[in-house]
Structures are given as structure tokens and as C-alpha cells.
Amino acid sequence: MLKKKLVIIFLSLFFFAFQKINAEQIVYIDMEKIMKESKAGKMIIDQISKSNEKNINKFKKIEEDLKAQELDLIGKKNVLSENEFKTKLEKLSKQISEYRTKRQNIIQESNKKRVKASAEFSNQIKPILGDYAAKNNISIIVQKKNIIMGKSELDITSNILKIVNEKISKIKLD
What we know:
CATH architecture: 2-Layer Sandwich
Radius of gyration: 29 Å
Number of helices: 5
CATH class: Alpha Beta
Order of helices and strands: HEHHHEH
Number of strands: 2
Oligomer: single chain
Number of domains: 1
């Protein structure tokens, strides 16, 4: 009888303590919103967009030039000797191949810069999250994208956004 009461008391205390931990120490954050709305995040997005736009314009100009060369060569097909035409066609094909390789390399480099900037941004936010968690007795901070459903009171995004805007002014892209 005494044993049953002790077990019941122990289980009651255990469940009460477990419920309190779960309810108070788990929150979530929308990192995508932080990236899009913070000053530093906007700066990263703006720099990447400008770089991409510059590259796209450069690609269009090269493509137009290559297309003009191709049309010019096709127009001269009947005037040029077969050997001369073949040589110019091979030269143009080589230029097109070099352009595609260069374009692919620039795209890959741009993607690397974007990933590196996002990682740097994330690394700078981690200490802010750690401080916030320590000050507010939070055990776990989860990304919102991994949450199926949660109370809006557990969303700390706006609080963190304010702190990020105060502490992180810019992220440097290479």
C-alpha cells in the first residue's frame, strides 16, 4: 500500500515536471524571415541579386554576339570554301563551348558565395540565440520550417529580429 502511494506520488511529480519543461522551454524561430527582413539579411540578398543581374546581362551580351557570329557564318556558307567554312565553324563551336563552361563556373561561384554568406549570417546569429535562450530559460530553439503546428506565443522571430538588427550591421561577401 505504501509502495503504491510512493509510486503514484513519484509518477505524478515526474509527469508534472516533464509537462512544465515541455511547455516553457521550447520555442521556434523563422530563420527565412530573419534573413529576408533583417538589415544584414537584406544586404546579403541585395548584393547577390545585383551580382546575378550583372552576370545575366553579361551572359545575354555574349549570347547575342555568338548568335550574330553564327548567323553571319551561315550567311557566308555559300561564299566561303568548304574548308574555310569548316574552320570558322570549329572556331565558333569552341567559343560557344568556352562560353558555356565560363557561364557554368560563374553560376557555381555565385551559388558558393550565397551559401557562404548564409552560413556566415547563421554563425553570427547563433550567439544571439544562445544569449536569448540563456536569459529567457529556453532549452530548445527549433526552426519554424520544421514545425507542423505550434502556438504563436512560442514564436520568438520578432524578438530575435530586433536583436539581430541591433547587433549585426552587415555581412561581407567575397
